[in-house]
Amino acid sequence: MLEHYFTCPYCWETISVLLDSSVFKQSYIEDCEVCCNPIQVSTLFVNTELVEFQANSIEQ
Known about the structure:
A hairpin with a 2-residue loop joins strand 4 and strand 5. The chain has strands at residues 2-7, 14-19, 25-31, 38-46, 49-57. 0% of the residues lie in helices and 62% in strands.
């Protein structure tokens, strides 16, 4: 598991998530631990190294 810090797209607070580096590509919804808004998290790992991370609001 890899702890990754990023900025919430709603409240701009720095939060962290635990990422499973054994899963090549992931996309899921995670609630912000500060403001509780839903965030679309997408990751891409190559050889257990995080090469892409996106955290976006799900509002349109």
